[in-house]
Every structure is written in structure tokens, then in C-alpha cells.
Amino acid sequence: MILTFYLLVNSATRWVVPGAEYFETNQPLNDLRFPSLYTSLSQVGSSGKRKWNHNIIFVAGNLTAASIVTGLACEMAQYRKNNVHIVFMGFDTLHLDAFRRINGLPGKDDLDGCTVYFHDARPEFAQHLTRNWQKIAVQSALQHINNFMHPQALIVAPKHEEEWFMDIVKEKSKELELVLIELPTDTTEDVNWIARLDSASLNAWHKPSFEVVIHANTHSGNLERLLKSLQSAYYPSPEHRPKRITIVLNPHISIHPSTHDFLRHYKFPCQHKLSIRRPIISKQDPLAATVKFVESFYTLSDHHSVLFLDPNTEVSKWYYHYLLFATLTYKYSSSQGPDTNSLFGISLELPSCYLDGRKPFLVESFNNTLFLYPSPASRAALFFAQHWCEFHSYVSHKLWHNPNAGSVTERIPLPC
Fold first, then answer.
1. Between the CA of residue 332 and those of 53, 260, 388, what are the distances in Å?
2. Where does the pLDDT of residue 252 fall: very low under 50, low under 70, confident under 90, or very high at 90 and above?
3. pLDDT digits (tens, 9 = 90+) for 117-176
4. Do residues 326 and 332 lie in contact, with contact meaning Cβ atoms separated by under 8 Å?
5. Do the Cβ atoms of 285 and 407 come closer than 8 Å?
6. Which tops the pLDDT comparison, 112 or 11?
7. Contact, 386 vs 345, CB < 8 A?
8. Cis? peptide before 269, omega within 30° of 0
9. What whole-number distance in Å separates Cα of residue 32 and Cα of residue 51?
10. Among the four residues 253, 264, 311, 355, which has the most C-beta atoms within 10 Å?
């Protein structure tokens, strides 16, 4: 009786792994089978059935790409935030154990080494398949993997993959609504910070976007230097760069001819996404200047943020990497705390003084290089959309109820 009851309960709660015939793709000419994929996918567990899980997959279509992504995958696995998998979809005959030895990886039974799940998604007779059948094999393997694991993101190294392989991976990822992350460079060193992101952050890889607003109080070479630093910075991908740059010129200072010529030929991020404004405001009306500052940005998207830069600053070549990493970590991570939920933005500079006015500000007094501060930076700071919207509404209400604001109070405050 006890044994019968155990078998009934176990069969009702256990995730049933289909047989090897599940991995056959019926085609008019013959069957496309993935004999090694059955064994590894059966070890994924029941978490793969849930749409939201911690599975992250690195996909490789050849041995070179596999060697490139393996190092990053092993580093990600060390942080124990994700279930990291590497899927081989190439058409060579090298055994996975041989690949481990060549790349200095521990054996599959060594729990102290690279704790990554390896999956051999190469079909039978892979080396004899024609190009059309190779494309079908990649599509079928991705379909099986999605059915079993529902990965939160696919990570590939496109610079080491063949063009047809990337086309198939992009097409199938779009069809399955999978997040595809393309590593931007020949090595993973420039983006090794993504190993610290959890599955929820990686799933939001394409969500955050930024635009830059510069209020130029002077029209000197400092503005040109800032714009050149924005253009020459390293960006993770063509998609991850400022969506728009807005330059608000000071109406009370004439534009220098060299600055005028520089702005006419400046085309970053592209010509139609560069906006130059010169507001008409009175020099004796600071309130109007404040209103123009707040009005310089507004968005309806919760994922579109604004980076305010002083023209006398110059950004690091890695500034966008830091903004993207911090945004994905503190805004989209599944492990957000109460402090990060109320985070208004990210500063690119240290405060000049403490809240009580004492100087200098000593960062050594904090235990971490990243810390919360209740006062926003004035020279280089990113503000998240929802909080800037609240600030926009706050200023509108303050002006509406201010009897000394003159004609500005005629504006109707709109709720955020």
C-alpha cells in the first residue's frame, strides 16, 4: 500500500521527460534526430516548464564561438544567480569531453569547477548535412530547448558565427519571443559585467533606453569636447546608445562661429536625432528658466530615462556600460529591495559636499563604491522616467498654486 501510494504521488508531481522520439523532426526525406540532447535536457528539472525561471543559455554554432562564450558562462555560473547552460549547435564531430579538456574545463562530474550545464544539440550525421538541413537542424534544436527550458535570454557571439547561422537564430528567437543578446566584440572582456546580472535583468536587456539633454550655459570648446566624448564612447551595441541628444543653448550668449560650424556637422547618434533648441526667456526671470529646464524632457515610457550633462563635463568611454549595468541591476533585477524601488536615478559623479555643506566629500567614509545619496547630482545624472514624471507633475502643481508666478500659473497641472 505504501509503495503504491508513493508511485501514484510521484507520477503526479514529477515532470515527465518524453522519450527520444520527441527529439525527431519529421521531414519529407528522412528524420532529423538529436540523440545527445535527450540526456542533458532531462536533467533540467521542472523549473524549465515555468515561463519565468533562472535559465540563461549561451548558444554556439562552432568551436571557436563555443570557446569564446564558455569563459563568460563559467564566470556567470560562479555568482550563482542563474542556471547557466551552453548549447552546442555546430556540425563538427568533437566530443564534449574533448572540448572540456582542450579549454581547460573540469569534468562534468566535478562540482567545484565550471558549474555550467552543457547540451549537445548537434543532429545525427551533422557533418554530412547540406546547408538547408543545417538551417532546419538549428531551428529544430532551438524549438526543443525552448519547450524544455523556456530560457530568459539567449547569448551569442555573432562575430564568431556564420551569417546564415545568426540569421536563423534571430528569426527563431523572434518567433519564440526569446530575448537575444549579441556580444558586441571579438572577446567578452568588454562586457564581462553581464555575468553579474540575474535572469530578470538579462531578460530586460532590450528594455531600457536613454537620451541626453545638455543645457549649454556657454558656447565654448567645452561643449564640443563633451559631444566628442559622447561620440567616441564604447557602446555595447548599435541599439545601446543615446536615442536622442538635445542641446539647449543659452539665449543670452551669442553662438561662437566655431561652435556653430561644429553643431552643423555633428551627426551623432544620427542627424535626425540631434535636437538644438534656443529658448526665448527673460534674463531676469529665473522661474521661467526653471520651467524650461523641466520641460526639456518628458516621456510616456517607463523604460526611457534622461541623462542630464553639464557642458563642462566629459564622459568616460565606458559611461554607457555603467549606466546600462546599473539600470539593469537596480531597476529590473528580481532581487530588488525597498531601497532600490525608490531609486530616482544614477549619478556619474561624486557629490561635492555633504548635505550639511561640509567639504570635501570623502568617499572613503562609505563601505562601498556604490551608495545611496538623498541629493541629486547637478552635473551628470541619469533620472528614471517614472520619477522624472513625478517631479514634472510636482513642479506643475507648485506653479499652479504659487500666486507670485505670474502668467506661468495659467498652465493647467497635468497628473503624471
1. 14, 40, 18
2. confident
3. 999 999 988 888 889 999 999 999 999 999 999 999 999 999 999 999 999 999 999 999
4. no
5. no
6. 112
7. no
8. yes
9. 27
10. 311
